[in-house]
Amino acid sequence: MLLAIDVGNSNTSIGVFAGDALRCELRLSTQRNWTRDEVAVAIERVLALAGIRFADLHDAVVASVVPPALAPLLRALSHYARLDALVVEPGLPTGMPILYDPPHEVGADRIVAAVAAHARYGAHRFAPPGASEPHGLLVVDFGTATTFDVVTPTPEYLGGVIAPGIGISADALFARAAKLPRVDIARPARVVGTNTIMAVQSGLLYGYVGLVEGVIRRIRGELGYPVRVIATGGFAPDVARETDVIDAVDDALVLDGLRLIHGFNRGPRA
Description:
With 270 residues, this protein is an alpha/beta fold. The chain contains 7 helices and 10 strands. It has a 5-stranded mixed sheet with strand order 3-2-1-4-5, with helices on both faces. The mean pLDDT is 92.
């Protein structure tokens, strides 16, 4: 089985694939200063929840946007699981040209998601009703930051937009507005709040929905071809329920992209 690990700023997503099938998806809190042994224990324990041992794994692929966390993770996989992990980093072939300038500044998770989106939702797989030309893709990833990434019909990674995530936007509000209570990000009963908690929840959720709709509208206005919008990340379902600009929600997009890039570089293995 293949171990796929996506180290994000807030969470680390772990997936195990048997062939093309995602057998399990697990999450850890990302620790920037974890040691080799600490990360090995954490991964071993979380895999045990799915009945998987290090000995069951034949290879690993890793993407990380947290540089200090990468080296201990790779050492843990090598020492305890005997895995020489493939790392998604600048220069690694992905099968998708990168038009970003300079290419090495694009986060690994953004490229991985773009590769998976093309494989799963590209023009060769899906054509919008009445479409007279190939469509591109717009991947919206609701993580610590919310990223909007455009994949051309060719396909090529064109570029995108980086905005503060809804979680850190909420943290900034609570940190700077002393009298506002910290509330969960949730759908209020109505847009017009009749108490402070509802008013803050309305501003966080619907304000963010407005941001997403506005950015997507402007991106579509700049492109000369239609795009299908694919959302992923923790808050994707919450935002998608409140708008009609998102065509699909795919929680496993980045993990599947890791599987695809691994196969592109090392070939499929059972």
